[in-house]
Design a protein that fits this description.
Layout (H helix, E strand, L loop, with lengths): L3 E4 L3 H11 L35 E6 L14 E3 L5 E3 L13 H7 L16 E4 L12 H13 L2 H5 L1 H35 L9 H9 L1 H33 L9 E3 L10 E3 L2 H20 L2 H28 L14 H6 L7 E2 L11 E2 L2 H8 L19 H30 L2 H6 L3 H5 L5 H31 L18 H15 L4 H29 L13 H12 L12 E4 L14 H9 L8 E8 L2 H21 L4 E8 L2 H11 L9 E5 L12 H14 L3 E6 L14 E6 L6 H10 L8 E8 L2 H17 L5 E6 L11 H31 L4 E2 L2 E2 L4 H22 L4 E5 L9 H12 L5 E5 L11
Parallel strand pairs: 10-11, 10-13, 11-12, 13-14, 15-16, 15-20, 16-17, 20-21
Antiparallel strand pairs: 1-2, 2-5, 3-4, 6-7, 8-9, 14-21, 18-19
Helix pairs in contact: 3-9, 3-12, 3-15, 5-11, 5-12, 5-17, 5-18, 6-7, 6-17, 7-8, 7-15, 7-16, 7-17, 8-15, 8-16, 9-15, 15-16, 17-18, 21-22, 22-27, 25-26, 25-27, 26-27
Length: 931
Amino acid sequence: MDNGEIEGSDDNEFASSSSSKGVGLGVGRKYRPVVAHDTDRAVLEMSSLDPSSFPKKIKVSTQPNLGSDSTERSLPTHVGANGSQRESKLELFGFDSLVNILGLKSMTGEQIPAPSSPRDGEDVSTTLERPKITGVKSGTMMGVFVPCLQNILGIIYYIRFSWIVGMGGIGESLLLVAFCGACTFLTSISLSAIATNGAMKGGGPYYLIGRALGPEVGVSIGLCFFLGNAVAGALYVLGAVETFLKAVPSAGIFRETLTNVNATGVAEPIPSPSLHDLQVYGIVVTIIICFIVFGGVKMINRVAPAFLIPVLLSIFCIFIGIAAAKKDHPASGITGLSLQTFKDNWSSDYQRTNSAGIPDPAGKTDWNYNALVGLFFPAVTGIMAGSNRSASLKDTQRSIPIGTLAATLTTSGLYIVSVLLFGALATREKLLTDRLLTATVAWPFPLIVYVGIILSTLGAALQSMTGAPRLLAAIANDDILPVLNYFKVADGSEPHIATLFTAFICIGCVIIGNLDLITPTVTMFFLLCYTGVNLSCFLLDLLDAPSWRPRWKFHHWSLSLIGASLCIANQVHPKNWYPIPLVFCRPWGKLPENVPCHPKLADFANCMKKKGRGMSIFVSILDGDYYECAEDAKAACKQLSTYIDYKRCEGVAEIVVAPNMSDGFRGIVQTMGLGNLKPNIVVMRYPEIWRRENLIEIPATFVGIINDCIVANKAVVIVKGLDEWPNEYQRQYGTIDLYWIVRDGGLMLLLSQLLLTKESFESCKIQVFCIAEEDSDAEELKADVKKFLYDLRMQAEVFVVSMKTWDVHVEGGPQQDESVEAFTGAQRRISSYLLGMKEKAEREKTPLMADGKAVVVNEQQVEKFLYTTLKLNSTILRYSRMAAVVLVSLPPPPVNHPAYFYMEYMDLLVENVPRLLMVRGYRRDVVTLFT
């Protein structure tokens, strides 16, 4: 019962009961309960056991507590230098993009104050008096709506939004706004539900996450959110200073930098403020904001309207200016609101830009949709501004839902309307070259927008500098991290030390002086926090604990789950990509009963991680019924975990019980891991024993696993010659040879670099072999690959192998004879298998069947596949017979071909190669040229 009162019906009875239960305490001894927080403690002090000392009424306040690539299925084509399409001769790799010149170039792109999370025993606090109200309390408008609006309407809208419309087009810009807006709207609903489920203390989202998922999780996410707010403060300060220096160039202390513009109609270079000016002015502005924050919530509430009113006025002037614009007025490139301009700007036009954001074929930045998400998302990350100040609100359960959702819907509507207006207002060239287009078109003059930009960014910086210290103080007050004890504050006091620390972080980021570098960092910090809020609401709603009774009824666990999914669907930047291997321990062959995993698989998993650090997931499948094998699975999992520790591998063990290996693996690849901690690369050994031991079920299982990995968007590494793989003490010499045939996002290059970090391979050198089908492609491809490797800081020698003919009778030699012998054997076995299928189909009057499904076999295509693998195997034996390890692209299983055929292709490819890794990437880059 919330805030109820318990009447003491009989003091003597209560005293007698207390005395009987307090044997050993001694009459007259004072007892004070141990509590987690001073502000939350039970103020019930037993001064003596005399009945007259007990109160007549005890107030009890309760708090809730909870303990496959989308590919064309057709014959492959290859784009020649003249732009025409012709049939590709690399038949076996027909479903992949070849590492040709155009493909290589496309690959170089970037594509909470007062105690917070409740600890054990803090759920119910017994108090003798009403809580003391300290400080000035804010309402919905000034406490939530205005701070959220100031944080959301910031620098991105004014000086980046029109440029985003020009780069992504109207269509994808609307999708961008819808995606980011959906993330924040769903998070706002989850936030509203949790915030209305009882009294809310300081700490905002940290308190919400901590009370649902535990204080340890709350601290982890809370610290990230604190850093996000602190860094966002630097983002807003830099935006204000940059706008000020562009509006008043004479205010610059240092000389401006000039950016020469290429590939645009703008003839004159574009001036940019000096980096040193940005640093000096940024530090001064940060210090001024810090002093305002020191004045407390009362002063901030007085200052906030002065920042917000000019912002709203400037937006009004922008819309008036858009309505009044005509062709080439007020500047060239302005068309006025035109249907033709709208059509021209509908589609995207992603391209390279220089440091000033101007299109330039030689620029260092390549843009795509994911990059625009990282740039734009901070424009919607203001929804926590009100909850950050939850301790300063009069009524958190009313103010947070109404104020947050109102600010979210208001700004989302503004962004959608702005996309449509900017897209119909100016040519694409104007959108991409005039980053201050909002000021250019503003009525009656640009100065109004300059003032609006500066005040909006300073207001957002003020809100960030207000919320972040209170969040840090709330985390410190929980005593979970002793190092944060310096930031503790008493209830109702201003967190001055935390404010100074926040300003220090902000100044450090201001010194960087580049707004575009800070923006993606802010995005990731906020997404992590939003994920925590959505997961908290999802778990609370799904478990439906008795204490889960939020006043906000417009929520559902499915909405929270969708919100969390949207937040974790931003891709990890290739610069930060690292392999999380899913190691398939015992798929083929027999091992001793006391060895749950092939020892060389554990060694190879360590080779995929720099300095042996990083998580691996070791899985094995136990055939049978789960009800019968559950105990066996637990024992096997314990044994596998012990073995992993023995092999000094950082990872976890999982045993899955399934009717067969195919079903077991399909379940594993769909469910293993969480978010960005899902395994992204499957590692297993090549089934070399399948023909030797006549294991006819292996081809279908092997092909099914590869297809499952393709559908699940997992990279694949298959190790041939696993028994010969060196351990950490066996030093290797020679070369690591890469046969780079199809685009794999740079996975093969990354794996080769990881191998070089191991002591056993550190003496080796990398050789890259690229396959060119025509002599005319060879030199240009070699130059491009060399430049690409140089930009990646990778030391490697490049060779281009020209395959101008697929005739088997070329360039004899020992390796050719070995390959031809393997080729004829594979050809003979495939013909025999195909004949058996046809006889069975005629006998049973059914279509051709293999592996339980109908197949369509083009015998001419089968011959081409065999010739492809023959030539590749012959080339590998010619150049890489003595290599320490060979890496080659793994071709996908051909559609409608029997699994037996694919195994024959693979056997021919790996024939006589002692140690080989077959690698298949997935739909993303794992290396990048950029910092």
